[in-house]
Amino acid sequence: DGHNSHTTYHFCEFAEKHKIIILCLPPHTTHRLQPCDVGAFGPLSSAWRKLVSNLTVQGIPIRKNNFLKHYSYARGKALTTVTIKAAFLKTGIEPVDP
Length: 98
Description:
98 residues, DDE_SF_endonuclease_dom, DDE-1 domain-containing protein
């Protein structure tokens, strides 16, 4: 959202070095403009709920030592290239039309 606490000199230097364009969003608009909020977190939440339900039925508990394995699986199912591209399209951030 453009707040100065979200960027540092090193962050900007890294972005420039790797040809990454930093896009600062106007304040109080991230619920409409952030791709993750608009189109990625919903599918991730659904995939996680489905996985937890399946694990519960199988009697497999989620603990500290297996959480990342299970979360990574749900994340891989939900955050695909197609899902992420669709989220950027839905916000209007992509394609860029200056």
